[in-house]
Structure formats: C-alpha cells, structure tokens
Amino acid sequence: MTGATTISGPERERIAAVLAEIACAAGEILRRYHRGPCPHALKPDGSPSSAADVEAEDLIVAALTERFPGIAVVAEERAQDATARPGDTFFLVDPLDGTRDFLAGTPDYSVNIALVAGARPVAAALAAPGLGRVWWAGSATVEAAVIAGRPGIGRPVHARAVPETGLVALGSRRHGDAETATCLAALPVLETRQVGSALKFGLIAAGEADIYVRCGPTMEWDTAAGDHIVAAAGGCVVVPGGGPIRYGENGPDHRNGPFAALGDPALASRLALPSCGSRSAQLSAAHP
Predict the structure, then answer these.
(1) Which of 13, 53, 149, 238 is the 20 to 30 Å CA partner of 190?
(2) 7 has a pLDDT exceeding 90
(3) In the listed set 156, 190, 213, which residue is the last one of a domain according to the structure?
C-alpha cells in the first residue's frame, strides 16, 4: 500500500468499513466518560487533553497497528513526539475531536480516522458517539446508526445542491473570526447553526447543511476524515485558490490554513478565503 493510485475502490471500501468499526469502538470509551468524571489538563497550545482522549487513542492506534501493520499512524496525543514526515501512506487520528464540548457535557464530539495516500485521504470514518451516528467512505459515503458500539447497516448519503431558499452554514461554538464572517456575508446564507467538532463534515455529507468555513487554525487530524467523507458524498473541501488540503506536507506541526467544506462544489467559485487566518484566530486553540 504505497499510494492512492495503488489502492483499488473495493480495497478503499474495505478499509473504510474497518475504520468505522474502530471509530465506534473508541466511541464507546468516550461515552463511558461523557458527563462523568474525566481528568484533563491543558497542552502547551492551550487545548485540553483528557483521559478519554488518551484511552480512545490507545485503542485506535493498537487496532490500526494490528489490522494494518507497517503503516504509520499520526495521532493527536502522540503527534508532539513525531518530527519526520510520516511517508506517502499513513493514518491521521483524532480520538476525541471537540474535547471542550465533550467536557462541557454536550454531544457534539467525534472520532476521526483517515488513511492518507499521496497527500490526500482515500478512506475514512467519522463517528459521533453522542448522537449515535457514524459515517465512513472509501469511494462513496455511507451513514449508519451506532448499535451496541458497532456500525449498523449503512445507507448511501449525498451532499446536496445549493438550495433555492439559501444556504445552511455551520459554525463552531467556540471559535469565530472576522475572516469567516466576511466569507459567509458574501453568500446567500439563510441560517447559521452552531455545531461542535468534525460533526459538521458529516452533516454536510448527509445533505443536512451546505457550508462550513474555517479561517482559524485546525490540525490535519481534525479535518482529514471529514474532508474525505464530504468529497466522497459529492461535495468538496477547498483552500484559498480552490485546491484541496494536502496532508503530510505541513511539517511536524500538521497545521492547516483556512478552508471551506462545501456540499455543492459550484460554491467554490463564489468563495473568497483569505490566504491566512487572522492573528487572533492563529492564537486560538486548534480544534474545529
């Protein structure tokens, strides 16, 4: 498994289904901690890390190492120990995206796992344990209910075209900046909903919303799974200039720049993302 072109469509589907099982299993760990005692501390960047993050990541890394030996794993809680580029093919893992919301008792948190090959995700899973939903994608995106800690029967989902009535935009509860507001002000936004974590990508893939703009910092493990799930559902995730996010090429800190997740790719030509985020946003915690 050395690059995107060497992984067939059926193989991507198989990998994605395995990732969904692993994400749901990690989600059961998070559910046990949710709304109960969960020791946590702040990392050097000011973002929280909890016992739930660490335990879920341990499960995911062990499962990926067992099922896919030889493929590097870049995971959030271990990433500070990595200095070298992980290679052409590697996993990106966020065991608990939306830790602040999780610790506050809200259900908008997620488990994100993506396989990257040739700087782009090729298979991914995104579980929302607090909502009992999971999405996964190889060549196409499917969604299922989480039943007894496992994915149920999946059904295909598709992002939607721009509604005639206007766009439903998704924003972050805990992160906002002027650049994001300016981007959205230029579009026919009918409604803005505040949603935590990478759950926003799943809602766009399922045709329940249309756009998520983020001009403040995020990390590659925050976006890779959702990026692929939106793209495989017919949408896209773009950076300034209209291209895709390229993973594993941003140095050891794995930091993204501004991006937008779009249900309808036709929106990309109407979007003016800044070339870099605001200074205030750059100093905020790097979680969507």
Answers:
(1) 238
(2) no
(3) 156
